[in-house]
């Protein structure tokens, strides 16, 4: 089983990333203020500040002092790269271990994946 304890600030950051990838927040558009998001999510504003710091440090958003936070030009590609890295470093090792324990062959996984793709078309 995959068990993770993701801090609230990171959950908020991931939610903003989801909104960016899904097109709810466009490049160079303003995202909710710290107070707005804290109120909407019913969390402490310091938690939102920590989320915004994480997003800023990862160059996903930028701050226009006195105006607010905005989506960076390369936000979508940065988010996808971060998620790919997380997937390959955190999730795949767990999946591979489970496959080994359950004697699941990679060919079975490929077949299931292909079935999944066909069902989405």
Notes on the structure:
This protein is mostly helical and 121 residues long. The chain has 5 helices and 2 strands. It is elongated and about 55 Å long. The protein has helices spanning 8-21, 34-41, 45-57, 75-102, 106-120, and strands at residues 61-64, 68-71.
Strand content: 5-15%
Counted by DSSP, the helix tally is 5
Please report the distance between the alpha carbons of the first and last residues.
30 Å
Shape: elongated
Helix content: 55-70%
**What structural class do helix, strand and pairing data support?**
mainly alpha
List the secondary-structure elements in sequence, H or E: HHHEEHH
Q: Uncertain segments of ≥5 residues (pLDDT<50)?
A: none
> What value does the Rg take, in angstroms?
18 Å
Instruction: Please tally the β strands and state the result.
Output: 2
Overall average pLDDT: 94
Q: What would the keywords be for this entry?
A:
elongated, mainly alpha, 7% strand, 121 residues, single chain, two-stranded antiparallel sheet
List the topology elements.
Elements: H1 8-21, H2 34-41, H3 45-57, E1 61-64, E2 68-71, H4 75-102, H5 106-120
Antiparallel strand pairs: 1-2
Helix pairs in contact: 1-3, 2-3
Summed up:
By secondary structure, the chain is mainly α. It contains five helices and two strands.
